Amino acid sequence: MPNRIIKESIRESYSIDTLSPDAEVTFYRLLTYADDFGIFKADPRLINKALFPLKAYTDKNIAKWLNEIATAQMVIFYIGEDGKPYGVFSTWGDHNTPRNQKSKHPHPTETEGTLFGNVYELLKAIEINCDQLKPFAALIQSNPILIQSKSNTLENNLLLKTYLESKIQNGLEAYHDKIIEFFNYRQTLQKSKQYKSEKGIDGLFRDIKSCQTEKLPIITCLDIAMEKRWMAPVPKYYKDINLEQQIETERIYTNAPC
After folding, report:
1. How far apart are alpha carbons 130 and 44 in whole angstroms?
2. Are 103 and 33 in contact (CB under 8 A)?
3. How far are the Cα atoms of 45, 137, 163, 219, 255 from residue 167, in angstroms, in the given order?
4. How does pLDDT run across 105-164, given as a tens digit for each residue?
5. Beta strands in the chain, from DSSP E residues, in sequence order
6. Would you say 153 and 197 are in contact if contact means Cβ atoms under 8 Å apart?
7. d(Cα 176, Cα 190) in Å, to the nearest integer?
8. Which of 32, 99, 172, 221 could form a disulfide with 233 if both were Cys (CB 3.0 to 4.6 A apart)?
9. Taking a C-beta distance cutoff of 8 angstroms, is the pair 90, 157 a contact?
10. How crowded is residue 78: how many other Cβ atoms within 10 Å of its Cβ?
11. Beta strands 75-79 and 39-41: pairing type?
């Protein structure tokens, strides 16, 4: 398995904070299981053996924790061209640079019916029926609309992330990681407060540009917005906050040589 470096910012991740302790451990171990493109085999039976060789967890446990990670919108599941189940980390490209030229697993496609936001629906689609997972069949049958909704949400997030990346390339590259962090933060809020379209992303960048016009420190503004659980870094929100020291610090940071 490959070695992975975990950034210290993961301690303050809003997505990670939504996970149970067991799901969080699964997430960290899953990082070492994925290939250089963030892709991994998503059969809970294989994951159980690979991630927890010294534990006695059931495949049912693994499926439950995988689903928590998917609900936090950190992975999406899909059926590969070989007909097997796979998963991919939704923000892998933000934190990792592939060392290999080609993935050893098939990449997800936009083919209808091959992407899933729920591991049980994925397993049902490929007819995996190990004894430990059978109890979840009733859950799948009883709530198909909810499961499909989660899948659609994950697909939409991937499209929005692509649009977000393109907007960052218009002169905001120095703030790339912080803008991505703010986007991920918004997507962990209740559904009515999440970004759902390119229009919402455009609004974020208007606020960021306004902060620039007001000569406010972008990174600090985004940090404060997340800390205070604000929906956006609107300049008027910071009128009573002393940001002079942060302005100078950010000026040095964003103009420093790489």
Report:
1. 10
2. no
3. 40, 42, 6, 16, 20
4. 888 865 556 788 888 888 888 776 444 454 444 444 444 444 444 445 555 667 787 888
5. 39-41, 75-79, 85-89, 115-116
6. no
7. 24
8. 221
9. yes
10. 25
11. unpaired
